[in-house]
Structure formats: structure tokens, C-alpha cells
């Protein structure tokens, strides 16, 4: 006669924990996705002319270069008024991870950043043109923030 083997009681604990861990890992956004999400949010705000809100997403290193009032005025003036465009479209490349990246040649390195190429297209008084820029995203005090490259 065949005897039915009983499962060890530890399996009733291990299997649910393993399933929960797998589900969390599948649903938890990767750092690269989080970086791309913040860049997307930044450019959506810029599209809408909400430069005060987009400034908030800049890394403190960049915010220090552009006081908020100056940033708002410059972005609206240069990118909208000079180009003669009300708004723009944009596309983002896939993020690529960089280690020990520096904002300037003599700056302290940032351990990990994500590099994303942003291409903005404008239809303005001078016709159609594209603006391409490398954007870098780093964690600063548990928040993702944008940086631009100022190396020579």
C-alpha cells in the first residue's frame, strides 16, 4: 500500500514568503525606471511652462547654478520666446548607468547616475528644429534629481 508523505511544516512558511518576495521584485520599479520617470516628469512640466515645478526636480548642484526666479525667466524666454514656439515634443532614450560621474572636471564624483538623452522638437517661427541634451539623474536625499554635464 502506498503511503502518502506529509510535507514538512516549514514549507508552509517558506513558500508564501518566497511568493511575496517574487511579487515584490516584479512590481518594484528598477532604479533605471525611476530615473526615466523623473526625467519624463521634468519635461512634461517644462512642456506646460511650469518652470517653477520643474526647477524643484533639479539636483541641488544645478539649483545652486540657477536661482529659481532666474531659471523660470530664462527657460520661458530662451526656449519659448526666442524659438517662437508655444511648446515642444520630446523623446527619451533608455537610461544607461554610469559610475563615479562628475558634473565638472574638478567636482566630487557621484557614485551612480543614470544617463538619458533627451531630444526636444520645436515647431516655431524659424521652422522645425531639434534640441538634444544629455541628462543625468542621481539620488539626492532619497529623491531622484536631474543634472546636466558641465565638463570641458
What separation lies between the terminal Cα atoms?
Answer: 81 Å
Q: What is the number of domains?
A: 1
Summarize the amount of helix as a percent range.
25-40%
H/E element sequence: HHHHHEEEEE
**Low-pLDDT residue spans:** none
Q: Which superfamily, in CATH terms, is the homologous superfamily?
A: NTF2-like, domain 1
Summed over residues and divided by their number, the pLDDT gives a mean of 88
| Category by helix and strand content | alpha+beta
Give the C-level CATH assignment. Alpha Beta
Structure, briefly:
The protein has helices at 11-27, 31-47, 51-55, 60-65, 68-82, and strands at residues 89-92, 96-101, 110-124, 127-140, 143-148. It is of the alpha+beta class and 152 residues long.
Task: Describe, in plain words, how this protein is organized in 3D.
The chain is of the alpha+beta class and 152 residues long. The protein has one domain (31-148): Nuclear Transport Factor 2, Chain: A (Roll), CATH 3.10.450.100. It is built from five helices and five strands; from the N terminus they run αααααβββββ. The protein has helices at residues 11-27, 31-47, 51-55, 60-65, 68-82, and strands at residues 89-92, 96-101, 110-124, 127-140, 143-148. The radius of gyration is 23 Å and the shape is elongated.
